[in-house]
Design brief:
Layout (H helix, E strand, L loop, with lengths): L1 H45 L7 H27 L3 H4 L3
Helix pairs in contact: 1-2
């Protein structure tokens, strides 16, 4: 019985260590998209997409802005760092 309770305890702790970061990441991404939605709402109001609903337009634009920002940050980070193949040779 002790082995069984140890297994259950280990499984629950491992599950929490797996689930909590995912939930936190989803929550933070939702907050960031909410902030970007407020920033792009005036732009989205000016753009009239007949295929997309009014509220979805600002959400889509906010998501695109967030993805572009992440892409630019990765490019800047890679530009300032050394390429991997040159790191070993000095």
């Amino acid at each position: 019985m002790k082995r069984f309770t140890s297994f259950i305890k280990t499984t629950l702790i491992g599950g929490l260590f797996f689930i909590i970061p995912i939930v936190l990441l989803v929550y933070l991404i939702g907050k960031v998209i909410g902030i970007f939605r407020k920033m792009v709402a005036p732009i989205a109001d000016k753009i009239d997409f007949s295929l997309l609903g009014g509220e979805m337009t600002s959400r889509i634009i906010a998501t695109i802005v967030l993805l572009l920002l992440c892409f630019c940050l990765v490019i800047c980070q890679n530009k300032n760092s050394q390429p991997i193949e040159r790191m070993g040779r000095r």
